[in-house]
């Protein structure tokens, strides 16, 4: 239960159901995790005097604008985005006891998708990157460092971190082919279907990250 959680000074809310299709197929279940559970933990942490950092997403925007500002109105077009936006609204109302960190695509050292592309290319297979999807990648190590700084400062409000530009998946595939000195015909682009919610992939996923530059002096790697 919530009351059995340990007494801490800071809490990072990482738990979420992030798969867009899964959230659309199971709205009640995903709402329990992404909204109800997150709020219950944050409210408990506030009561015991702990500071909470809530990890959010670029999906709270519709992706129609490049480098979306933190002050822009939320405009989610997916169930997952709407759930994160709902949680954000209630968490902001808790004041400076809560920080919200919106992130674009976080890439670990060996991202599974790109590793699978590399492996397929090594087996002389064709890769099929999406032509209508972009990412504004941000390094996992950078995100961990940013969270660590937020834990120490405990500043409230909304922070955003993303790569400095949107990159199409077909561009990422082209970069990989060039790196591996392979012909461009090894990539066969395809369009990502609209999916269960009939919403097209967002055109842009980048976020304005000026606050972390101003307050922490952090420059996100290009």
Based on the model shown, name its key terms.
222 residues, alpha/beta, four-stranded parallel beta sheet, two-stranded parallel ribbon, 7 helices, 8 strands, 38% helix, globular
Explain how this protein is built.
β2 (51-57), α3 (79-92) and β3 (98-103) form a beta-alpha-beta unit. The chain is of the alpha/beta class. α2 (27-47) packs parallel to α3. The protein contains seven helices and eight strands; from the N terminus they run βααβαββαββαββαα. The mean pLDDT is 94. The longest helix has 21 residues, at 27-47. The chain has helices at 20-25, 27-47, 79-92, 112-122, 140-153, 169-179, 210-216; strands at residues 10-13, 51-57, 98-103, 106-107, 134-135, 138-139, 157-161, 167-168.
Helix content: 25-40%
Number of strands: 8
Give the count of helical stretches.
7
Strand order of the largest sheet: 1-2-3-7
Sheet having the most strands = 4 strands, parallel
What is the distance, rounded to the nearest whole angstrom, between the alpha carbons of the first and last residues? Answer: 42 Å
> What general form does the structure show?
globular
Give the strand content. 5-15%
Structural class: alpha/beta
Radius of gyration, rounded? 19 Å
């Amino acid at each position: 239960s919530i009351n059995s959680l340990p007494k801490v000074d800071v809490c990072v809310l990482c738990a979420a159901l992030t798969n867009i299709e899964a959230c659309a197929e199971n709205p009640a279940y995903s709402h329990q995790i992404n909204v109800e559970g997150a709020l219950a933990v944050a409210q408990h942490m506030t009561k015991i005097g702990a500071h909470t950092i809530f990890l959010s997403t670029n999906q709270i925007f519709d992706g129609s604008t490049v480098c979306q500002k933190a002050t822009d109105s939320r405009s989610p077009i997916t169930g997952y985005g709407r759930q994160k936006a709902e949680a954000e609204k209630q968490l902001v109302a808790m004041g400076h006891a809560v920080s919200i960190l919106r992130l674009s695509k976080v890439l670990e050292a060996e991202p599974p998708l790109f590793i699978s592309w590399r492996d397929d290319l090594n087996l002389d297979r064709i890769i099929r990157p999406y032509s209508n999807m972009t990412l504004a990648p941000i390094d996992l190590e950078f995100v961990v460092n940013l969270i660590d700084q937020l834990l120490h400062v405990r500043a409230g409000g909304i922070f955003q971190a993303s790569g400095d530009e949107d990159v199409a998946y077909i561009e990422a595939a082209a970069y990989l082919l060039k790196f591996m000195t392979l012909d461009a015909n090894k990539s066969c682009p395809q369009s990502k279907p609209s999916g269960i919610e009939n919403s097209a992939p967002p055109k842009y996923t980048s976020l304005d990250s000026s606050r972390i530059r101003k307050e922490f002096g952090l420059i996100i790697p290009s």
